[in-house]
Amino acid sequence: VQLVESGGGMVQPGGSLRVSCAASGFTFESTSMAWYRQAPGKERELVAMISPSAYTYYPDSVKGRFTISKDNAKNTLWLQMDNLKPEDTALYYCAKGYGRFQNFRPEDWGQGTQVTVSS
């Protein structure tokens, strides 16, 4: 299993950013996938998940601002982040796992990509 994130960077508050995850080594189209983030001194938290049939879940902290999507033909997962806030600053991780919605359980992780929201 290999998960490689890209697309992080620095953006001003209110801005947008899209991060990507290139997946390999497993059957992507039949696997639940998710994005997590971890800010310094805080626990890693789930910010979006997508099921094999493309059902999605977002916690209240990002609902309406973040959108998870995937392309099974390209084995790629994305997270579109809009109206970013300074509190969204974190290392963002792609994860492969099982379960749905807030019951998603990660099995494998990428190395992470840094997102910094600052003026």
Task: Spell out the key features of this protein.
119 residues; mainly beta; seven-stranded mixed sheet; four-stranded antiparallel sheet; 11 strands; 0% helix
Draw up the topology in text:
Layout: E1 2-6, E2 9-11, E3 17-24, E4 32-38, E5 45-50, E6 56-57, E7 66-71, E8 76-81, E9 90-98, E10 105-109, E11 113-117
Parallel strand pairs: 2-11
Antiparallel strand pairs: 1-3, 3-8, 4-5, 4-9, 5-6, 7-8, 9-10, 9-11
Strand content: over 45%
**Class computed from helices, strands and strand pairing:** mainly beta
Q: Mean pLDDT, as a whole number?
A: 97
Low-confidence blocks of residues: none
Rg value = 13 Å
According to DSSP, the number of beta strands is 11
Broad shape: globular
Residue share in helix: under 10%
Number of helices: 0
Major sheet summary line: 7 strands, mixed
How far from one another are the termini? 37 Å
**SSE order:** EEEEEEEEEEE
